[in-house]
Design brief:
135 residues, five-stranded antiparallel beta sheet, 24% helix, globular, disordered C terminus
């Protein structure tokens, strides 16, 4: 089996359906003897550019180990789900289990940690006012 990193973004009006979607995708992978190494909910974030006149979306990251047939099924599920605005699947050389840099953000949470605990403490706010005063 190969390792993949999957990021998908969901329409903000469908944010309340994200846990159900994640559980469905999790069962798709684990039901075919795959493994989920990392699963993170990054929450609602600003898009770089509008997609279908939407400026914010809900982001989810998954690192999975699965066969090609399961990957095709996931890809098919993303394509035909109207709530998924975009998805990206990248083949990885090895399993990634460490928290992503996005987990340092305040609203992010790991879905693989027990009871949905916060994965990392929020990063301290950058001293923007001090930098501006120094200029």
């Amino acid at each position: 089996m190969r390792h993949y990193e999957i990021v998908f973004i969901v329409h903000p009006d469908q944010s309340e359906q994200v846990p159900g979607m994640v559980e469905r995708y999790r069962q798709t992978v684990t039901g075919r003897n795959g493994k989920i190494h990392r699963l993170e909910d990054w929450g609602r974030r600003q898009l770089t550019y509008p997609i279908q006149k939407v400026h914010k979306a809900h982001y989810v990251l998954m690192n999975v180990e699965c066969d090609n047939e399961t990957l095709g099924e996931l890809d098919h599920a993303f394509k035909f789900n109207d709530a998924v605005l975009r998805h990206l699947i990248v083949k990885m050389s090895e399993a990634v289990t460490a928290p992503s840099p996005m987990m340092k953000e305040e609203k992010s949470r790991s879905l693989t940690s027990p009871a949905g605990e916060e994965g990392a403490k929020p990063a301290p706010a950058a001293p923007v006012a001090e930098e501006a005063a120094a200029r």
